[in-house]
Design a protein that fits this description.
The chain has about 325 residues and is of the alpha/beta class. The chain has a single domain, classed as Alpha-Beta Barrel (TIM Barrel), CATH 3.20.20. About 45% of the residues lie in helices and about 15% in strands. The chain has 11 helices and 13 strands. Strands 1, 2, 3, 4, 5, 8, 9, 10 and 13 form a 9-stranded parallel sheet that branches. A two-stranded antiparallel ribbon has the order 6-7. Strands 11-12 form a two-stranded parallel sheet. Helix 1 links the parallel strand 1 and strand 2. Helix 1 runs parallel beside helix 11, helix 8 crosses helix 9 and helix 10 crosses helix 11. It comes from Nocardioides anomalus. Keywords: Flavoprotein, FMN, Monooxygenase, Oxidoreductase.
Amino acid sequence: MRFGILLTSVHDATTDPRQQVREHEELVRTSEELGFDLMVCGQHFLGSELRYFQPVPWLTHMGGVAPSMRTATGIVLLSMVNPVEIAEQMATLDVLTDGRAVFGVGLGYSPHEFAAFGVEKGSKVKRFEESLALVRRLWSGEVVDFEGEFFSVSGAQPSVRPLQQGGIPVWIGGQAAGAVKRAARLGDAWYTPPFPTHTELRGLRELFLTTRAEAGLPLDGDFPVRRELLIAPSRAAGLEAALERYRARYEVYKKWGLSGENTPVEDGAELRADIEDRFILGTAAECVDQLGQLGEDIGMTHFVYKPHWPGLSHRDAMAQLEEFGSQVLPELAS
């Protein structure tokens, strides 16, 4: 098992943006020292509650801070952005990180983002699939003639291409059955978000593998997984710590319109059970056991860890990262 660090946003515009730069620099520098293999950065537009800097320039800079780590977009909203532009941006990232880029992509879900780009939600799947096909053609090195419903290219042979032979690996995110099947058919891996329960995750993994097998595609590729994880003196203490962080983050997801995310946010038995169904919680040893068992069950190749939460101080997040990196990561990496 290998390990990634998620460079997520916990600030809005009231925080000096240079603070966010410094915090993420410290995060990736420490992660590299602890043995993390990967840094992951997502994409949102027009967010007022949380400030998302755009992933390709952000990862380009952070890749220079921790040059041994791979860089992954997790995820680019491919149903909204222009495929020609993102193909060349990702190729540039791959060159600048010496062939260590991963292209994580997904549909997106926020109505205000689709509206800003003039994209009707009903067209997002077609736009996504067409865009991905064009991106891969533009990375091929061959002359590209492409006539799609949304994008067209004639006689193009871009000089801006990835360093990795055959193109950049494509990880497709999503939590619904349709998204998992799409990842199996069109991607090199399914990049799972943290929203499915542990049981749901196992079922969706089986769906991914079945779909790959039916299409005659390899079954031994990467499987990067995001789970929320909190180290605490006990599982009960971890649950209490998770309650506050959970509400702060998932209220934003709900406000942004994440489809299918009907999780409770009011304290009570239902919320606590929901957290336990999705989180890895407890002492470092308990987290090793839980994460190790889940990894064996589903064939996880990468665990993507998120130490930052809204309302949690950077110092406390770094303490969690160092405890994870010194007590959990070595046990599972070996």
